[in-house]
Amino acid sequence: MVTRPARLFAATALLLAASGAAALASPEDLALAVTGGEQAVAPIPGGMALSREGQLVWSLLDARPEPRGRIERDVSAAVRGFYERRRYEPAWIDRRKPTAQAQALVSRMKKAAEDGLAPAAYAVPALDFFSLGDPQVAAEADVALSIAAARFIANLSAGRMDPAALGDNLGLRPERPDLAAALASLAAAPD
Description:
Layout: H1 4-19, H2 27-34, H3 52-63, H4 70-85, E1 93-94, E2 97-98, H5 100-109, H6 127-130, H7 135-158, H8 179-188
Antiparallel strand pairs: 1-2
Organism: Propylenella binzhouense
Protein name: L,D-transpeptidase scaffold domain-containing protein
InterPro entries: LD_TPept_scaffold_dom (IPR045380)
């Protein structure tokens, strides 16, 4: 027997897939959609006063499960550091619309095949998804774009696979750039 939460989860996944937004939607992200984005807000570290948008971004990052694998841990740490330096303010959304930097970044990631990477690995919600007036949706889209961008940068610089996953005998440790600094640079780029 299919439970009501399972049906809601499946229906939400189908809706997000139809809108082009499911590529980065994790079960946790979909669960937020099922619950209307309601979640407990834990205290902000250091007693930092945050804007409403900053609180939403912080809550999304705080609710993310611990990532598996070195590359995903690096991506997660970079995204957290990136937003912490911004006081958790959205980077890619301005007045519920995508910034020029967001549009350029999405356009570039869609061309990942030119670099031998699968564009689907860096898919983000459609840009019209950003223009919805719901602050929760805007925060979710902002965080999803940051995660996709950090993953794209990491994969471009050192590949999609961590050689250590094949064993310690290889001794290979590819150099990755400072992903948080790269995100900050992209968000502040003039075009």
